């Protein structure tokens, strides 16, 4: 089958006039993979790879079915089988839904011969419904937290964007060749954004607006309105912060899958077709990506991002500032089949309706009067040169109106009339900087029930560090498990090794002294074991994460003995191999160094020192290898994915990861310790006579098992888990160096409650990109 697929792929590639290198740039599939598929050296291609190649070749109809049929036995040619391969399209047609929710031709990657197509559709439909409920609940809470409905949403409006940023209307309207086409009337207001999107036949919408014009609020309202009126045939809108995507390293579908798994850990569960549920939902077109913040991408990534988006036919919504989007379009092309709209400014009438209702009444003789009335009246007076007042220009965006409301409406002691002082604020820039700079002091001087008091000056420094941290990482996502990435990789590894050495050394020393009854012996043993454990676990952390550039991700599973779902895959074999190899490597290194130290302490000769080191390396390698392999294997058997509908927020992810790590710790320590203690006796019997005379006793085995179990569990927790790294860096090192408060989790949650941060799934983000930029610059100057 591999040879037939390669022949079909090569013929279709040559038909499209593309070289293998050009196909690589369009699809994101490496040249070596393409060459291996075409020559038949690579068999059984993943369906995600097949879909990328089909999208890059712009295949449709019979050509796409032929490529799919060559990759998947049982789906060759047209007819019913090919129709089943296009499960999302068929499901939409059966439900009578619109074409907007349909997936690109070619069907989902989950349709395999082992799973009946009807079962695939039913499983994915159920997962999509659960995802819709979780997304709706999350963004409803976020809208309430942002007080968007208090007293009512600001009137965000839009108009069609300029024609230079618009694709051909025939493409947008999906018209056949030769059919007359006319522009769509896309003007509208915030409450009609879902209807505006559904009026675009291509299902692709670009929302343009300058900084603070309300793009993020618009996407939030779109998701809620779309979900409220969504039919089962339509995809689930999910907001993704596209500023965190590197299109040169990760394909769009893979990145969407990763983000979906991060924000909804339950989607990491295996779905139909032996792929993750997140991958199946994305590949089958049941997720509508709402890509927020195209302008927040690095300058060199916008062009490849736009090219990658054009290489797919996915329905989507994209938001950006006009200048950044126009620059990317000038370098490559408009977003194919996308209808762009541009947000318009607020008017003085909008301010007259909104701002007076946000402040308390001050004049008893005139109950309708407030602090904003004289200011708004002054703005309507014509200026000598006919230009609008600087304050009127500043208050033309929802962002600045929200800041002005916070600084003046919510604090009666502040008078907004000072904003009219042209001596104090001669221009627009000075007014905007004044509102941005006073936002934090205002919200942190207000007391909040149940919240501790944070000094505004320290808050400015801590948030400035976080803003600069995000700027350096080139991402808007403030993930608690990546807070330590503001440090250099060598510093992170060194801190990890030192703290791990200290913790394991103290535990080992105390337990050794308790077993042996000798304080001096316990201190010596604790020092040796602590240094060796710190070195070993530090090296493991360095090679696992620092060298590879990977993150220590929160666990997407939980431990459960009974009631495991049928979709759970038990990975006992791989866990056994990995655990055995890792334990054997650690045991050999530990045993060799301990053997050397013991022989040297007895003033033995070089030959005896080396012999003693090798014997101990073999002994401890077998003991720790077998114990670690068994423990990892049992851990794998007890892991099960989380539920999709589980509420996900940064705090809930942190708590869930802490619970998982503590359960693993309570499981790992006794199991590993028991395996080490019993294994020591078994290995002695196994090697007796082969390596000389070996001896052990029950007390030595008990001591070895107890110390190894607890020390190994602590080392694993501190170096290889997200919660352990959070404790080391965010709870100890960063507060020690003044970059964060000691109660980092409480501080982040309080910043969210005060409206400084927002929650985007499992991560925080600064509520306003302008505020983040301002804080990062002030921190850099400091």
Task: Give keywords.
globular; 30 helices; two-stranded antiparallel ribbon; seven-stranded mixed sheet; 782 residues; alpha/beta
How is this structure best summarized?
The chain has 782 residues and is of the alpha/beta class. The chain contains 30 helices and eleven strands.
Structural overview:
With 782 residues, this protein is of the alpha/beta class. Helix content is 57%, strand content 6%. The chain has 30 helices and eleven strands. The chain has a seven-stranded mixed sheet, with helices on both faces. Strand 10 (757-760) and strand 11 (763-766) form a beta hairpin. Helix 25 crosses helix 26 (650-687). The longest helix has 38 residues, at 650-687. The protein starts with a helix and ends with a helix. 49% of the residues are buried.
